[in-house]
UniProtKB/TrEMBL annotation:
GO cellular component: cytoplasm
Compartment list: Cytoplasm
PANTHER family from the UniProt entry: GLUTAMATE-1-SEMIALDEHYDE 2,1-AMINOMUTASE, GLUTAMATE-1-SEMIALDEHYDE 2,1-AMINOMUTASE 1, CHLOROPLASTIC-RELATED
Top-rank taxon, per record: Archaea
Swiss-Prot/TrEMBL GO biological process terms: protoporphyrinogen IX biosynthetic process
Modified residues (N6-(pyridoxal phosphate)lysine): 259
Iron recorded as keyword: no
Name of encoding gene: hemL
Keywords: Cytoplasm, Isomerase, Porphyrin biosynthesis, Pyridoxal phosphate
GO molecular function: glutamate-1-semialdehyde 2,1-aminomutase activity; pyridoxal phosphate binding; transaminase activity
Source species of the chain: Sulfuracidifex metallicus DSM 6482 = JCM 9184
Obligatory cofactor(s): pyridoxal 5'-phosphate
Listed name of the protein: Glutamate-1-semialdehyde 2,1-aminomutase
UniProt main location, coarse: cytoplasm
Listed pathway(s): Porphyrin-containing compound metabolism; protoporphyrin-IX biosynthesis; 5-aminolevulinate from L-glutamyl-tRNA(Glu): step 2/2
Amino acid sequence: MSINLWKEAQQLFAGGVNSPVRALVKPYPFYTSKGEGPFLITEDGKKIVDYVLGYGPLILGHSPEKVRNKIMEQVQKGWLYGTPSRIEVELAKKIIFHIPSAQKIRFVNSGTEATMNAIRLVRGFTGREKIIKFNGNYHGAHDYGLIEAGSAVSEYGITISKGIPKDIVKTVLLCEYNDLTCVEKYLKEENVAGVIMEPVMGNYGVIPPKTDFIKGIRELTSAFGTLLIFDEVITGFRLGLSGAQGMFGVVPDVTTLGKIIGGGLPIGAIAGRREIMDSITPAGEVFNAGTFNANPLSMAAGLATIEELEHTNAYEISNEAAKVISQEVDQMMKIDHVTHRVGSMMQFFLGVKEVKNATEAKKANKSLYLNLHEQLLKEGVFIPPSQLETIFTSASHSQNVINFTIDKFRKVLREIKNDKGSS
């Protein structure tokens, strides 16, 4: 039973969990025994439609057959070598073929490692120290990323994690998303190595870029000799085979990837222009290493996933699921709200009329959203336990699953509307 496991976990782990968002499910987290297509099966025997999907990696759903078979095939050959292997070459070729900015790539083990090393890389390549990031953009759990870093810190009433030296904070210049004026000001006044950004905000809810914002960033960084990093850990291979950069037609200097390229297993990657990537050891002097870099199991799962995305209608199904659900729920809402969707990513901001950046997203009715989450979970639908996360769909979300979900939204929204204490 989940309650018994939760009681044990509280004695074993800080806050009872190994990643803080998992503790936001109330009154206690449910424990999963199995994932199957669009469903999670809990230790309590409950079957739940999953719209969290591991917080993004599972674009094909849970345990898709071809990915599972590829992993098991690799298990038979071994799962850690400490040497190069054929499968890392095969996955790298796939990614470089599809991602416009990728001429060379370095595999690491998480999105956090990818962005941490990307920031080090642009500093090493340019010889400059400062970077620009955007309020609410999340770039992983490292010192430079944990400054106004989306739901990762704001859910806990903080803007910067304790333990980060003030001298590091001084090297990070903060702008509001969708604001070109701030970026231009800093580029003129400071010696900026790189601008790091989510081309679509995915950790403050879903916030798309305004028209010409990304193109404007590209033009400004090019003009000032500053490198542009797209953090596509979420959007890479979710918004299409060429990611957000393909969708918006803007090519950054460096791209960070994760989540989907590992097929649900731990992974991260830095990709970019050849001369920049050749600054990484052993070719250059920007250090990166890792015992588990290019782990064969992650390579196998990622390769199988991308092959499925290439040869099936996975994008069509997952995008249509998000489109139908977002449109239906948008019409059901009888309160002020904003609905954002980009591809198979969506979120509902309750109690506000506009959300174009993190400051506006903070004004959304957090308690009302949590009520929505809790009531849906009781009905067998799992959306993120935070207004500031993303609702994802997958290729396993069939029409029957969509219909079930819409029915549950309709029931829950009717009850919330009638509950005067929640509005």
